[in-house]
Amino acid sequence: MDRKTISLMGLALLGILFSSSVFVVKETERALMLQFGRIVRPDIPPGLHWKLPIINQVKKFDARVLTVDGAAESFFTIERKRLIVDSFAKWRIADVETYYKATGGIELATKSRLADRINDGLRNEFGTRTLHEVVSGERDRLMSDMTKTLSDAVKKSLGVEVLDVRVRRIDLPPEVSDQVFQRMSAERDKEAQELRAVGLEAAEKIRAEADRQVTVIGANAYGEAEQTRGEGDATAARIYAAAYTRDPEFYGFTRSLKAYRASLADRNGLLVMEPDSDFFRYLKTPDSTEK
User: Fold this and answer.
1) Integer Cα distance of 180 and 186 in angstroms
2) Cα 97 from chain centroid?
3) DSSP run (H or E) holding 84
């Protein structure tokens, strides 16, 4: 083996030794160093670092904010009303050494244990509150208290911190949902009927008032018309009286013509009178002076 080959082999060996002695921790990672299974560097900052090949072993973990989705669970309120709750939480590694010792650095194991803790915490929180409080009244306060309590507990036991716990959805059980829907539907129908009754009553009042006004207006108009007609008849009577008093004979003549027109209008009628009656006075003697 020549010197050149030995030099190349030496360089290759040095390269392998160098690559196995250097490691990089990214900004999105947390790391610790083991020496024969024992932790010698619990929290390695981001950057370029050295280690002893074979002797030292580096474990890296995701340092970003992660999400754990809890399975939908059944919880009871203080009123013993059952709810189906779907929740999730945001978490990240706080203490690398504790995290590794508690979970072995396995993310799935951490999520499983966090989900159990979240469900236990929600069960306790829901058990001290009413349905209205967990749905709307104190929901934000419940989540805040839950986040703080859970974060304090798991930071010591699992080496992680919980940043936020949220309830994605709260549902009633199917058998209760149907009853609630039917009750709500009945209440809405009752309210609708009450509104319709109030509307019908108001409509009847408006119609009655309108009919009353029509009757009053009609009566007033009829009274005014009759009064006007009476005044007109009185005026006409005065005019006729004034005219007829100037010539009583002419008045008698015109009245007789009206009587003739009314009596002789029916050609098939029968009129029985004495020939010398005053009724035929102007028919026999057209001259008004003759008797």
Assistant:
1) 10
2) 50
3) strand 82-93
| Residue of 126, 108, 106, 113 lying closest to 162 (CA atoms) | 113
Whole-number Cα distances in Å, 282 to 246, 249, 291: 20, 11, 9
State the Cα–Cα distance between residues 111 and 40, nearest whole angstrom: 26
Name beta bridge partners: 74: 84
Task: Give the position of tokens 């549902």.
Answer: 171
| H or E element that contains 8 | helix 3-21
pLDDT band of 290, cuts 50, 70, 90: very low
List the one residue out of 121, 103, 120, 100 whose CA is nearest residue 111.
103
DSSP state of 280: G
Identify the CATH homologous superfamily for domain 66-171. Answer: Band 7 domain (3.30.479.30)
Half-sphere exposure of 149 (CA within 13 A, CB side): 14
Among 130, 126, 127, 118, CA closest to 158: 118
**0.70 cut: is pTM over it?**
no
In tens, the pLDDT along 212-243 reads: 999 999 999 999 999 999 999 889 888 877 77
At residue 11, what are phi and psi to the nearest 5 degrees? -65, -40
Query: How many of the other CB atoms lie within 10 Å of CB of 102?
Result: 18
**Domain boundaries along the sequence of the chain:** 3-62, 66-171, 186-246, 250-284
Structure-block tokens of residue 193 = 């009927």
Are 134 and 86 in contact, with CB atoms under 8 Å apart? no
